[in-house]
């Protein structure tokens, strides 16, 4: 057997067929998926829709694992459409690149955490947040993608609001007994305080 080592840059710039073959080999060697019977097509009926409330519950469960949070929010992006209605497809190697994970295996570990959190959030351990095919794609319901995008927008909006409230200057407080600048100006303009007025 001969082993070769490829950098992430070499994998990214490889032809699509080579990238898909590498993804399949990695996933098969790690035993992370069983090849589907129908030529790699995802099964839409097995993918549960993740509501916005479930998405928030997932986020609260995985927020201590930053790579999983990053992978989760990747599904807020627009995915590719592969013939089946209401299904969004994402390439695992692209997710790894976007969230700066070294390989697809770590993406799969994050997806496993997300799937477990989803099962707990909806009270059904058999519910699947995402599905896979033999070509190295991950599939979610289109409605799930929209709900994750909405959650992402809310998270960003709340962070911006928190930042803005921290940056608002507090009103200046004048120490007791001190004269404010407005009072000082008024005092200076009084005619009886002008210099050179004779009694």
Tally of helical runs = 8
Order of strands in the sheet with most strands? 1-3-2
Count of DSSP strands: 3
**First-residue to last-residue Cα separation:** 112 Å
- Principal-axis shape equals globular
Portion of residues in helices? 40-55%
Radius of gyration, in Å, reads: 29 Å
What summary fits the major beta sheet?
Answer: 3 strands, antiparallel
Structural class: mainly alpha
Mean pLDDT: 79
Q: How much strand? A: 5-15%
The string of secondary-structure elements, in order, is HHHHEHHEEHH
Low-confidence stretches: 34-40, 193-199
Task: Please give a structural write-up.
With 199 residues, the chain is mainly alpha-helical. The chain is built from eight helices and three strands. Helix 4 packs across helix 6 and helix 5 packs across helix 6.
């Amino acid at each position: 057997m001969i082993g070769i080592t490829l950098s992430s840059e070499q994998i990214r710039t490889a032809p699509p067929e080579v990238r898909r073959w590498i993804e399949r080999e990695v996933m098969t060697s790690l035993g992370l998926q069983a090849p589907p019977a129908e030529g790699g097509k995802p099964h839409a009926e097995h993918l549960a829709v993740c509501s916005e409330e479930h998405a928030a519950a997932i986020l609260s469960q995985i927020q201590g694992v930053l790579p999983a949070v990053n992978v989760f929010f990747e599904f807020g992006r627009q995915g590719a459409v592969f013939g089946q209605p209401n299904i969004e497809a994402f390439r695992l190697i692209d997710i790894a690149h976007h969230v700066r994970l070294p390989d697809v295996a770590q993406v799969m570990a994050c997806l496993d955490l997300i799937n477990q959190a989803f099962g707990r959030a909806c009270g059904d351990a058999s519910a699947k947040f995402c599905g896979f095919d033999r070509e190295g794609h991950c599939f979610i319901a289109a409605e799930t993608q929209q709900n994750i995008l909405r959650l992402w927008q809310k998270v960003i909006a709340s962070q911006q609001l928190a930042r803005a409230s921290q940056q608002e200057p507090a009103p200046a407080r004048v120490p007791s007994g001190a004269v404010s600048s407005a009072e000082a100006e008024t005092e200076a303009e009084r005619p009886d305080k002008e210099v050179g007025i004779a009694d």
